[in-house]
Write a sequence for this structure.
């Protein structure tokens, strides 16, 4: 478990250290570096030559139209799908040893650096919410059962589900299932969280509440968040950095802050994607 | 950088409890470090119980190099103890991030009620609940059989809406694709019957009747039963899993919303496929069983294939074949109805699909054996 390091740079430190370059060419502020990644299903290339860096404490959005390979990219970054080429580097210390080049034991170590929330929560239906959140703690730490229950209950309280510990996933709403998914992803206190379409299928109010929760968690815990989404309201509300994956060119066609991309990026696909939201929100 | 082992010091002085924490509190893979939060909490509880004059708590975390939720839950317990014993505890002493997290965890008020899963019901209550559930199950099965009957009548009238291509596909899956396993198992069962028969008949010099024994047994019952068991494990389980998964994915609701009857669209093709294929498979299985017996007869008793077949032809009558075919048809209906019913009444999660599949196989097997016994008695009474 990674947890909160008193030695780790605070937000102020991050600014002053932002230009510190280590001997391996990596900045101390880099949480994830994606290098020359190519994603394919068999011979069909989905995305290629993907190069980008995610800074610590970023809320990083992976956006693009349906079928552009957003979720596939997230799966490659989280060790679920092997990319055809390239690699993913977690934190500076691993920069010479990419995730996909690492040994099985090393991969497991790297995987402790992140938690993943899947689109529909992907909760285990035969387990209570508490058991869902406790699972990884039970299997990978030496905490006592009582401590694990306390930690899991605390994580559920963090996402506003105090009192629901003994419910089963089928007994709660879709929005609540997503929140349990977040609690489960946070169980080991990872410094990085991945979210696959967290707002999909939620009403605007629940979606807003979820965005607020992510912002609060990021603010309180300083977690780096990587979010795959095409929900424009969420992108503008919480994202401070983003990439846009294009279906036709099969690569990244825009990088940067979503609001700045909307204002400055002249790429037709990016504007079509981002300004549609502008029209819908009556800002034009 | 080497990680420093976590430690705590607690001292009581003049109604003040001083707590000093130090080291790395994230070491969860070492037993002593991982259990330290528990030890810390136990010690705190003791201090609170022993010192009735305690008025305030002071906590110092300057020497803590790293912490995680485990320590945070201990601090929460400390906060609860302070509340319980009305002791002053200023949360501002805690690191900023820890303070924020504690505030966030209590920000959203509790809305859930956990009680409903924790009640311990009495034995009588549990028995009563099980009986009520069983009665409901029986009711559901009867309802399902009635609905499938109605769907069948609709089909005969030409009003049922289903895809005939589905029926052909089911026939291929339950018939042609099952032939290798049906062949192997029935051949072996025929050979086993022949072997046991050969041992006994040899004692009386009646070896030639091995063909009589294997032929009649396989044709009348054994082939139908063995084939039905294979079909229950293979096709019945598959029906339950397919329909159960469709229910979980709301595909059955989608059919209903389109005005299509799931009984006609999904259950009927499976029932027709199974009812048509089972008798054919049973006849084929009888043939394979007789072949198995022939091999043993030739190998152990030196009875030629011609001699063996002539005995089989003389002993096995049309009534035996008809009895076997009828039994196989009944078994086909049982496997299809049970498999489909378990699938359609499946719960809405992955575990329920597994439970339905298991239940489909177990229930079909039990009903097949009971029906076989009942039919054997009826055949005996009717002199078939």
């Amino acid at each position: 478990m990674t947890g909160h390091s008193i030695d780790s740079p605070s937000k102020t430190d991050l600014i002053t250290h932002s230009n510190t370059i280590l001997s391996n060419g990596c900045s101390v502020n880099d949480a994830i570096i994606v290098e020359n990644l190519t994603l394919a299903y068999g011979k069909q290339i989905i995305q290629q030559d993907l190069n980008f860096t995610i800074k610590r404490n970023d809320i990083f959005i992976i956006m693009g139209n349906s079928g552009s390979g957003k979720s596939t990219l997230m799966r490659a970054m989280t060790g679920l799908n092997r990319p055809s080429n390239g690699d993913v580097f977690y934190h500076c210390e691993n920069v010479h040893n990419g995730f996909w080049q690492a040994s099985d034991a090393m991969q497991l170590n790297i995987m402790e650096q992140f938690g993943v929330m899947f689109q529909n929560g992907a909760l285990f239906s035969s387990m209570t919410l508490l058991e869902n959140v406790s699972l990884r703690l039970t299997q990978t730490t030496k905490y006592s059962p009582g401590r694990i229950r306390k930690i899991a209950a605390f994580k559920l309280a963090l996402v506003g589900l105090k009192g629901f510990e003994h419910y089963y996933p089928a007994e709660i709403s879709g929005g609540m299932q997503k929140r349990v998914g977040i609690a489960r992803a946070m169980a080991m206190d990872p410094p990085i969280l991945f979210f696959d379409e967290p707002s999909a299928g939620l009403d605007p109010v629940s979606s807003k509440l979820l965005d607020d929760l992510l912002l609060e968690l990021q603010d309180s815990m300083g977690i780096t968040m990587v979010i795959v989404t095409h929900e424009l309201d969420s992108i503008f509300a919480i994202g401070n950095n983003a990439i846009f994956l294009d279906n036709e060119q099969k690569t990244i066609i825009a990088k940067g802050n979503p609001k700045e991309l909307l204002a400055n990026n002249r790429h037709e696909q990016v504007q079509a994607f981002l300004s549609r939201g502008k029209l819908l929100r009556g800002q034009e | 950088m080497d990680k420093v082992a976590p430690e705590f010091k607690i001292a009581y002085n003049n109604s003040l409890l001083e707590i000093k924490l130090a080291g790395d509190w994230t070491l969860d893979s070492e037993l002593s470090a991982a259990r330290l939060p528990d030890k810390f909490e136990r010690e705190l509880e003791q201090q609170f119980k022993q010192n009735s004059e305690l008025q305030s708590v002071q906590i110092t975390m300057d020497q803590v190099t790293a912490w995680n939720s485990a320590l945070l839950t201990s601090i929460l317990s400390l906060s609860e103890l302070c509340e319980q014993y009305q002791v002053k505890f200023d949360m501002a002493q805690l690191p900023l991030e820890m303070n924020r997290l504690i505030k966030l965890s209590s920000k959203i008020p509790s809305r859930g009620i956990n009680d409903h899963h924790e009640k311990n019901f009495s034995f009588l209550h549990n028995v009563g609940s099980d009986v009520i559930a069983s009665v409901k199950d029986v009711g559901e099965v009867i309802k399902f059989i009635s609905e499938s009957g109605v769907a069948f009548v609709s089909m005969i009238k030409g009003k049922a809406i289903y895809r005939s291509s589905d029926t052909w596909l089911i026939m291929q899956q339950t018939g042609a694709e099952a032939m290798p396993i049906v062949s192997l198992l029935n051949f072996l069962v025929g050979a086993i019957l022949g072997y046991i028969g050969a041992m006994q008949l040899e004692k009386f010099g009646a070896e030639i009747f091995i063909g009589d024994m294997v032929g009649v047994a396989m044709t009348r019952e054994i082939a139908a039963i063995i084939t039905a068991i294979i079909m229950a494990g293979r096709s019945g389980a598959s029906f339950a899993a397919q329909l159960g998964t469709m229910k979980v994915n709301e595909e059955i609701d989608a059919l209903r919303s389109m005005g299509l009857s799931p009984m006609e669209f999904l259950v009927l093709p499976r029932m027709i496929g199974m009812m048509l294929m089972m008798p054919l498979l049973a006849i084929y299985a009888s043939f394979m069983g007789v072949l198995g017996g022939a091999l043993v007869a030739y190998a152990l008793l030196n009875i030629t294939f011609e001699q063996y077949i002539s005995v089989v032809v003389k002993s096995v009558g049309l009534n035996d074949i008809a009895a076997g075919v009828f039994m196989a048809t009944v078994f086909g209906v049982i496997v299809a109805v049970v498999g489909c019913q378990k699938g359609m009444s499946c719960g809405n999660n992955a575990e329920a699909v597994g439970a339905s599949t298991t239940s489909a196989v177990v229930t079909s097997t039990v009903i097949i054996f009971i029906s076989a016994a009942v039919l054997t008695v009826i055949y005996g009474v009717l002199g078939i």
Summary: Chain B has two domains: 7-109, 143-382. The two ends of chain B are 88 Å apart (CA to CA).
